[in-house]
Amino acid sequence: MLIARTDELATIEAALAEQQVVTLTGPGGVGKTALARAIGRSNESSYFVDLTAFDGGTASLTEGVAGALGFRSFSHFVGDASGLLVLDNCEHVIDAAASLILATTAAVPDIRVLATSREALGLPGELTIPIDPLGTEGSPSPAERLFRYEASRRGYGAKVENATMVERLVWQLDGLPLALELAAARLAAMTPGEMLDEFAVRLDLLSRTRPRGPDRHQSLAAAIAWSFGALDPQLQQLLSELSLLPQPFTRDAAVAIASLDADTVARGLGTLAERSLLRHEAGTAGSRFRMLETIRVFAREHGRDLEESAVARLVEHACDVAATIRVLAETADPATTQTLASNYSLIRAALAHSLNRDPGPHTSVALVEALWWLEDVGYQAEAAELVERVVGRWVGSGDLGPTHGILSALHRSAGSAENARRAARTAVDYEDVRGCAYGHRTLGQIARSDGRWSDAADHFTDGIAAARQVGSDAVAIEMELHLAVTEVRSGDVASGLDRMWSVYRRTEEFGLLGPIALAFIAWNEIGRDPIEARRAAEQALEASTEMAYDWGIGSACLTLGMTSLRAGNLAAAARETAQALDSFHDIGDKTAIAIALLAASAVLGQSGDGEGAHAAAAARADHVAGALSGFEVELFESLGAVAPDPAVAALSPPELSNRLRRAAEVETKADLPNEVRLGGDVCVFVFHGHESQHVAIKGMADLVRLLVQPGREVAALDLMGAAVVSGSAGPVLDATSRRNYQKRITELEEDIESAVAFGDEESATRFRVELEFLVAELTSSFGLGGRSRTVGEPAERARSAVTHRIRDAVEKISRADERLASHLRTSIKTGRFCSYQPQPTERWEVSGLSAREPAS
């Protein structure tokens, strides 16, 4: 909670409205982070990144920030970015942070950046806002209000009744929010007066001057040093050891790095949290602890003599975790991806230490091998950069075959095909069989994306053999699935699907491979057996959800979305496709995102969002779009996926997911009856929540008669509603008329082609309506055996007239509601008998019917 910061918040908001880059400056602990977080929360679209964990150059920082925000790469981030980017604690990477901001603002001209730093970044156009400590003047002063709030929150309100002592204390602490918070924590054992006495004895800690740096920074250091000094030696040692862990950290990591026994560490964590030296975070993954950066730096500085042994324990613990992940991965245990996701920062930190300290590659290689499943977790680009350092550090080592193989998988997943190909070929060239298996897998995936089916099959076959040779059954089985997908995409659908089912029956002991196999089966069954496809997708979704496996969830939802779309259930299709897009976006799988964007294009197009459909098509160009199989081409063409329109800009996957969900909300209204309201010369249709008004021509009345009787055939004679003179009056069309009809049909086909070429969709629609009518007329002019029908037949005269006026009515409706017109074109059947054949979810209620018109 922010106390007495209303003016600062208003100043920052006003500055961001005028300036693209705003930097909050001031000493550590002055409250810059709290203000930045508050601004971020008040903005509808914002990203927050704490830079304290980063210490690399510009490239490392840009990719690291993207990874911290859940994006696979910096280019992926700027493709999605909008609103406000908040970068906290820039001072230790000031040059890299400045370069990151320049790159971001250049790529996203409308983004705003709010940075916090102990000094200005020195950027052109940067507006610097110094943040001062809370004031100590007034009664109560802002600093006193914060101190009393923190005391009350901890249950020590009764200890701050002596206003004089409180005023003196907050003045002594310079009104620095962190110092006030730490002092409030000390109320558990001391009064404000006793704290003042303690400070009086240790005035060196509160000196307002020092050789370097701002005075108030020294005051904060004094507060931290005082709190640190108040700890017993064991807790001081524990805090210093914990400062070496990547933030946040688990209880297990704390026990592993500490030189104390587990019970002492557990108690110590509680005590440090109570004294505000640690912050406890409870989440779905369990308890975690976070140390403020200023405290972490102080504790680390005071534990330099402990660092070497503590780092050794950190690396040892990371190796144990990596070993656990490797064991889980051997059977594709569902815990593999979850354990890797929660411990990636630990493995990353251990790798960095190993690179700097180890004389050989053994430890680094062991840590890298735990990253095999990272392509299904995220952070691929950042991890690839780190693994590149490993292979560069120990060039020529004979132990790096698997490392190059894993590097190739990370590069491919991150969208860097050339780097992936290079690393994969290096892995294959090594004599290490496991590395060879990994390399062939990547080369097979690249070949398949390029449409080189034979090369892909050869690589997967070689990779399967290598994996089996070293006993990596999970890797071999997963590559069998890739081989099966290759068979399907090359046109051998039956063999590919048979192989997938065969593999699936062998995945019982390989947790994650079950939903992977089902997801592959479901997607590739769409063209052959949609019912089986949906059943397999539902199984895959259930298993993947239970395992918290994002790739499986996304793949299953993609199949469900396309089967729903084929069945005409737009609401379900939009929801399922949005979930697929979100899941793939979360793990940064560009190949999967590209397929989901095609699906989004089809769904949005059928939902009437033409702009969104073209934006999805345009976005696909930013992702790895591999070659489509024959059935995929046919599927997306049949569902109406559109080509990119140069006039429509791409939207990010999250933006497209939002559009899909809005479409789902609109389509859900289809569960409610549609409406037709008749009154005088006006006919009003309300279809899926969209209202359109039309002149009540005869064709409208015909439509209404059919809409209220779904599935029932109504004779055209009945729709005419008038006596028809019987008797023959000659052929419906004589030879000359037929020749004229055929000539006009040819002309209309040319007119349609020309109108489409010039983007004149309105004219093209008008020509198509006329063409459909003429073709129907020409076809219907022949009876059995090709003999001409006669115009005098009453049913024929009624058929011709009703067909023409219904099509005319639908064309007029299309000008106000193309979605309704499209629905009517596909569900209204005309002829001697006419009918309305909708999806079961479509219902109509009609008001204003005349007495002779049936209501059901």
Helix content: 55-70%
**Beta fraction of the residues?**
5-15%
The tally of helices reads 38
Note the gap between the termini: 62 Å
* Main pleated sheet: 5 strands, parallel
According to CATH, what is the topology of the largest domain?
A: Serine Threonine Protein Phosphatase 5, Tetratricopeptide repeat
Oligomeric description of these chains: single chain
Instruction: Please compute the radius of gyration using only Cα atoms.
Output: 35 Å
Quote the average pLDDT: 83
Low-confidence stretches: 200-219, 722-730, 783-792, 849-856
- Assign the CATH class of the largest domain: Mainly Alpha
In terms of structural class, how would the helical and strand content be classed? alpha/beta
Shape: globular
**Integer count of domains:** 6
For the record, what is the CATH homologous superfamily label of the largest domain? Tetratricopeptide repeat domain
Count of β-strands: 15
Architecture of the largest domain in CATH? Alpha Horseshoe
Strand arrangement in the largest pleated sheet: 2-3-4-1-5
Please give a structural write-up.
61% of the residues lie in helices and 8% in strands. The protein has 856 residues and is α/β, with parallel strands linked by helices. The chain has six domains: 6-130, Rossmann fold, CATH 3.40.50; 142-229; 233-302, Arc Repressor Mutant, subunit A (Orthogonal Bundle); 307-471, Alpha Horseshoe (Serine Threonine Protein Phosphatase 5, Tetratricopeptide repeat); 473-671, Alpha Horseshoe (Serine Threonine Protein Phosphatase 5, Tetratricopeptide repeat); 674-847, no CATH class. A five-stranded parallel β-sheet has the order 2-3-4-1-5, sandwiched between helices. The chain starts with 5 loop residues before the first helix and ends in a 9-residue tail after the last strand. The relative contact order is 0.04. Residues 200-219, 722-730, 783-792 and 849-856 have low confidence and may be disordered.
